[in-house]
Specification:
The structure is a single chain. The chain has 159 residues and is mostly helical. It has a single domain, classed as Fumarate Reductase Cytochrome B subunit (Up-down Bundle). It has five helices and no strands. The chain has helices spanning 9-27, 29-42, 49-75, 86-114, 119-150. α3 packs across α4 (86-114) and α4 packs antiparallel against α5.
Length: 159
């Protein structure tokens, strides 16, 4: 399959939709922490709107990451834009793979903890969520670096 020049409309919608949902998940995580602590302490969760939103946004994200992967396999993706720095280019490839890993592991570990009662999965969930925030931050910095320093048109692929 040849690489397209830009991402498809569904890929762009999935990218920004999932970004918004991860933000909602982040905002609602305190309610989920309270519900989880109550569940561990008493056997009954202290469900709040925040906890419910967090759980169902996570379920939705897990489904959407599957759609996103299938869409990428079917539609392809633009070639990576080389920076001229082998270390940066390798870091970008690793970061993109790690982002996909986080997009899978965060909601999956959360679901295993919440629906499956696997306590260790909640620890994995917390660590992966923090790793995800770091990766998203790097992703944003890299996009801005391409836009304003390299001026290579990388962000045009998301239009």
């Amino acid at each position: 399959m040849s690489s397209p020049a830009k991402y498809s409309k569904p890929q762009i919608a999935l990218h920004w939709g999932m970004a918004l949902l991860f933000f909602v998940s982040f905002v609602s995580h305190e309610g989920m922490k309270d519900a989880w602590r109550a569940l561990v302490r008493t056997g009954e969760p202290a469900m709040s709107v925040g906890a419910a939103v967090h759980v169902w946004v996570g379920v939705l994200l897990l489904g959407l990451v599957a759609v996103r992967i299938v869409t990428r396999l079917l539609k392809g993706a633009p070639e990576a834009v080389e920076t001229g720095n082998k270390l940066l280019d390798l870091s970008a490839k690793i970061a993109h793979l790690a982002l996909y890993g986080v997009m899978i592991l965060v909601p999956l570990s959360g679901a295993l903890a919440w629906f499956g009662g696997v306590r260790d999965a909640s620890e994995v969930h917390e660590v992966m969520f923090t790793a995800g925030l770091t990766l998203v931050g790097l992703h944003i910095v890299a996009a801005l670096y391409h836009q304003f320093i390299l001026k290579d048109g990388l962000m045009q692929r998301m239009r």
